[in-house]
Amino acid sequence: MSRTKTRPQPRPKTATASLRQAGLFSDLGSRQVVADFTGGQLSSDGGALLLRQIDLGLGVSRELAACFTDRRHPVFVEHQVRELLGQRLLSLALGYEDVNDHEQLRADPLLAACVGKEEPTARTALGTLQEGPALAAPSTLNRLELGNQRTDRYHKIRFDPAQVEACVLKLGVRCLPQSAEWIILDLDAMGHLVHGLQEGRHFSAYYDGYCYLPLYIVAGAVVLWAQLRSADQDAAQGVVAALQKVVPAVRQRLPGVKILVRGDSGFCREDLLSWCEAQAEVYYCVGLSKNPRLVQELEPALVAARAARCLTGAAVRRFAEFKYQTRQTWSQARRVVGKAEITAEGENPRFVVCHLPEKEPVPEEERVTDPTQPDQVYEALYCARGQMENVLKQQVLDLGADRLSTHYQGSNQLRLWLATLAYLLLERVRTLLLSGTEYARATVGTVRAKVLKVAALVTVSVRRVYVQLSSAYPWQGLFRQCHARAMRLVAAAT
């Protein structure tokens, strides 16, 4: 009788054995290239320490946490509201815009230390240390965002939308320069395409898809207002109500400051223009859609531009100004500046309506605009609003501000506010820590790549959290300069 030989079963691989299993890459000359996961507690975001100092100095997560109500039983609370918000804000600033990213991020000891976890390598449950990641899981963060939309036993953290709105405005206004004599408020309605059957979605022919149409108000590089709206309304809907909150907040920090409201033709509405005219030292420069009457008023400048085009063959611009009043909608005649431009593609007449001081110059960054000169009003003042669009593009491209993928409009509004505050943290890194360097005007994505993405070895002992940054990091001098400035910022705040 023959015996059947049984093949021995392989031993199950332990986690340690799996980590030590080497990965072989192409040889480098006579040397093997080997990689494994035995480097220890490493983080790719050593610059998160700078974000932590900015957060402590500006008080972003602290102020935001005060807008939430926590109904959880204190004995069973593992993650405080401020820690949850800090985890979400810092991860957004570091480039992790998706909640699902925290399934892996929650094990990062450096992020846990920056959030404020006193035990960065272990979870604290029921008052005792237990094995496991210190940070919250995606499900916990998701319940935080959806808390206002549910009334069941699993959603006990709620936020007050009015308080969060005021908090975002307060923190933004706090970042305006105290020496400013003029503040320019740029208005924009930016379409964000939705990712499913979200509440409040509406089809927009302009964006060729279902989207939201949030209202933004930006002062320089700081976003003061981010209001999520459905796309089934006019772009200027609610802008006066927003300015009624923004302008007093700016004046409270900067008494006597002069304010200029600037926007494209989508905001040229009688209620906005008349409201600005009724306020003390609030001016406007807003685009105006062309029509046959406006083109007729600009005809002398167009004739001069055509003649110059025939002589030179190059693109020509001529400017003119005149008084104009619509037949039905405007309550009075207003000053309009027209651009008569002729290029190889044809004629391109454009118009802006403005209410500006008669003699006092209006500064726009390094330039000073003479409000009596129509060419300066259009080219130097109105066209400079393109910088605001660059700010909003950074929010979308570098921070995922359009990741509004929850079902409810209220939770998507919270996500938009979180992205706005995460941008504020990075903007403060750029303004306060990188001023005078080659990255003082860089995008926040570049700031993140150069300053925050630093390999770090994290060692946690009883007495300290020891972070050893990469010796091969090429911008060590820049990082040390940022560290010194960040520590002075926190000292001034305390």
Molecular structure report:
With 494 residues, the chain is an alpha+beta fold. The chain has two domains: 43-158 and 453-493, no CATH class; 162-399, Transposase Inhibitor Protein From Tn5, Chain A, domain 1 (Alpha-Beta Complex), CATH 3.90.350. Helices cover 38% and strands 22% of the residues. It is built from 17 helices and 23 strands. The chain has helices at 15-20, 48-58, 60-65, 81-93, 102-105, 109-115, 138-146, 161-174, 239-253, 270-278, 292-297, 299-312, 374-382, 386-399, 409-433, 444-452, 476-493; strands spanning 23-28, 31-35, 42-43, 68-70, 123-125, 128-130, 157-159, 182-189, 192-193, 202-204, 209-212, 215-219, 222-227, 258-263, 282-288, 316-324, 334-343, 346-347, 350-355, 362-364, 367-369, 456-460, 465-469. A hairpin with a 2-residue loop joins β20 and β21 (367-369). The longest helix is centred in the last third of the chain and has 25 residues, at 409-433. The protein is globular. It starts with 14 loop residues before the first helix and ends with a helix. The model is unreliable at 1-9 (pLDDT under 50).
Task: Output the keywords.
three-stranded antiparallel β-sheet; alpha+beta; 22% strand; disordered N terminus; single chain; nine-stranded mixed β-sheet; Transposase Inhibitor Protein From Tn5, Chain A, domain 1; 2 domains; 494 residues
